[in-house]
């Protein structure tokens, strides 16, 4: 491409003599040589030390109005530093950082709750020993009359039969129905019951009396006040007193005086005959 030449206007051309050309430095230029590594490190450390010493000097120049370093805005001011006594800090650090291992204590035995006196059942009282009770004869016998109202069978006989008439046969041995004590005994034929005996027993804690009447004369085996055992021989079946034939008239007196049905009582305590 051809080079174009521009000429300045006459007004802009500088008047006067042209400046003398600058003297040319004819000295040879020294080539650039890099510093040794040790010198470079020394210069870097010197620069860092100079910067470190210069910063506190600048920071010490405080703004007397706000109490802050020059150039620090009040909005970022830091509050007063907190101080902690050395002894307290040391103690807290030891308590927080330290630990120890100990064996777990054995659990305390737990006592069983005491039973409430109201809830605990009272010990049952021992049941009274029930005496053995049996029928007057060891085997079944016929019955001729029962307890309750009736037609009088003879002159002087009652219209309300207070006992049970049993027919085992004349001369059959009569036994006591339970243990007891002879209350009264008559060896002679001197009344409606003829030769008879009355024995007191205790049954279920209650006085119960048994009556045996119309024995054969001379067959009575016991006397008043004598202790009797169940089944003991008392006398023999006869027909003394107000009687129409040989039989045993048997009564049960509750509390020693009140007649009750002998058959029902014996069935309750001695079972079936």
Automatic annotation (TrEMBL):
Keywords carried by this UniProt record: Signal
Parts forming coiled coils: none
Region (Disordered), start-end ranges: 1-26
Classification via Pfam families: Peptidase_M23
Segments forming domain M23ase beta-sheet core: 160-258
InterPro entries: Cell_wall_metabolism_enzyme, Dup_hybrid_motif, M23ase_b-sheet_dom
Disulfide bond listed as a keyword: no
PANTHER family: L-ALA--D-GLU ENDOPEPTIDASE, PEPTIDASE-RELATED
Name by which UniProt lists this protein: M23 family metallopeptidase
